[in-house]
Specification:
The protein is mostly helical. It has 13 helices and 2 strands. Keywords: Endoplasmic reticulum, Membrane, Sugar transport, Transmembrane, Transmembrane helix, Transport.
C-alpha cells in the first residue's frame, strides 16, 4: 500500500509541476498592455506565490470538508483539536485530559506562522540572487537542496537519520551537481548574462542571497517534518492553514518602481495587462494541485524523500526528452545520472530489507499467538 501511495505521489508531483512549469514560462514573457501601446514583463514572484498558496489552502479545505465525519467539529477537521483530547469514558461521559503542550493549538499555530515566514522569505531571495549570479550557478546551488534540509533537521529539531540516509543524500546531491555542471546550459547562461550585475562583489552578494534561500528552504522542510511528527496533522490540514505572507517594500530583495509594495504593483499590472489572468490562474491551479501531492508525500514519507522527488524531477524530464526527442547527453551527464540512480537504489535496497524484516517479525508473532 505504501508503495502504491508513493507511486501516486511521485506521478502527481511530476505531472502537476510539469504543467506548472509551462504556465510559469508563459508568465516570464512580456504581456501586451490593454491600450496596445506596448508590452511589459510581470515581476511579482511573491504575488504569484500568494495566488498559488490561497488556491492550495482553498482546495485542501474543500477536500477536508468533503471527507470529514459528521461528528467532527471544524477545529478537529483542521487538526487544531485532537479527537482523544475529550474521549468518552466507559460510562459515556467525556473525560477531559490535561492538555499536552506538544499538541497545544498555540504551539501548532506558532509553527505554522514560522513556516509561513520561511516560505515568504525564500522566493524573493532566490529571485534576487539571479541579479548577481548566472542561471547555471543558481541551478547548481539548488541541486544541493538535500544538504540544507538535512542540516536544518539536525540543528533545529535534533532529528537523527539512519546512516544510509547520509550516503543517499551525498550521492544524489553529487550526481545532480555533476549532471547540471556538465549540461549544455551555456546558451541559457549567456541569455541571463545581460541581467546579471557585474560589480566587484556581485558573486559574493549573489551567493549570500542563494545561501539564505537554501537555508530558508531547509528550515521550511524541517519545520514541516516537526509539525507532522509532533502534532500529528495531515498534509491537507497543514496546507489549509499555511499561507504566503505579504512582505513590505524591501528594495534589496524585490525592488519596485515608486517604492510601492509588490501586492500593489501586481494588482496595477493585472489591471493594465488583463491577458495575464488566464496563465496566472493556470499557474495557481496546477501549483495548488501539486501542493496537495507534495504534502501527502511529506506526511507519509518525510522531507528527504520529497526533496529527492522534486530534485530528480528535472533529471527524469531531461531523460524523457532524450528518449522522445533524441536529445544527446554529455558523458558527464550520464555519469551524474548513474550516481543519482545508484543513490536511489541504495534507498530502495534498504527499504526493501526493512519491509522484509518487518514481515518476518510479524510472521513470528503470528506463529507465537497460534501456538498459545
Amino acid at each position: 500500500m505504501s508503495f502504491i501511495r508513493l507511486a501516486v505521489c511521485i506521478s502527481g508531483v511530476y505531472a502537476m509541476f510539469l504543467l506548472w512549469a509551462i504556465a510559469q514560462e508563459r508568465l516570464s514573457v512580456p504581456f501586451e498592455r490593454i491600450d496596445g501601446t506596448g508590452s511589459d514583463k510581470f515581476k511579482s514572484p511573491l504575488f504569484m506565490g500568494t495566488c498559488q498558496s490561497a488556491l492550495s489552502a482553498l482546495s485542501a479545505l474543500i477536500y477536508i470538508l468533503l471527507r470529514r465525519k459528521r461528528s467532527d467539529t471544524l477545529s478537529q477537521s483542521l487538526g487544531l483539536v485532537h479527537k482523544d483530547a475529550s474521549a468518552p469514558t466507559s460510562n459515556g461521559k467525556h473525560h477531559h485530559h490535561k492538555p499536552d503542550p506538544r499538541y497545544s493549538v498555540k504551539s501548532l499555530l506558532l509553527r505554522y506562522a514560522q513556516c509561513s515566514i520561511f516560505i515568504t522569505s525564500a522566493a524573493p531571495f532566490g529571485f534576487a540572487a539571479l541579479s548577481y549570479i548566472s542561471y547555471p550557478a543558481m541551478v547548481l546551488g539548488k541541486s544541493c537542496k538535500l544538504v540544507p534540509v538535512m542540516i536544518m533537521n539536525v540543528l533545529l529539531y535534533r532529528r537523527k537519520f539512519a546512516p544510509h540516509k547520509y550516503l543517499v543524500v551525498f550521492m544524489v546531491t553529487t550526481g545532480i551537481t555533476i549532471f547540471m555542471g556538465f549540461g549544455n546550459d551555456s546558451k541559457k547562461g549567456k541569455a541571463k548574462a545581460a541581467n546579471v550585475n557585474t560589480t566587484p562583489y556581485a558573486n559574493l552578494i549573489g551567493m549570500t542571497y542563494l545561501l539564505i534561500n537554501l537555508a530558508s528552504d531547509g528550515a521550511i522542510n524541517s519545520t514541516q517534518d516537526e509539525i507532522f511528527s509532533r502534532h500529528k496533522v495531515t498534509g491537507q490540514q497543514m496546507i489549509s492553514l499555511l499561507s504566503v505572507l505579504p512582505l513590505p517594500y524591501i528594495p534589496v530583495i524585490h525592488p519596485s518602481a515608486g517604492g510601492q509594495t509588490e501586492l500593489a504593483g501586481a494588482i496595477a499590472f493585472i489591471q493594465s495587462h488583463p491577458s495575464i489572468i488566464v496563465p496566472l490562474a493556470q499557474f495557481a491551479l496546477t501549483g495548488a494541485l501539486g501542493q496537495l501531492f507534495i504534502f501527502e508525500t511529506l506526511q507519509h514519507f518525510g522531507s528527504l524523500t520529497l526533496v529527492t522527488i522534486t530534485l530528480t524531477r528535472k533529471l527524469f524530464t531531461m531523460l524523457l526528452s532524450v528518449v522522445v526527442y533524441k536529445h544527446k547527453l554529455t558523458p558527464g551527464q550520464w555519469l551524474g545520472t548513474a550516481v543519482v540512480f545508484a543513490g536511489i537504489s541504495v534507498e530502495a535496497f534498504v527499504k526493501r530489507k526493512e519491509v522484509h524484516a518487518k514481515r518476518v517479525i510479524q510472521e513470528k508473532e503470528k506463529a507465537k499467538l497460534k501456538s498459545l
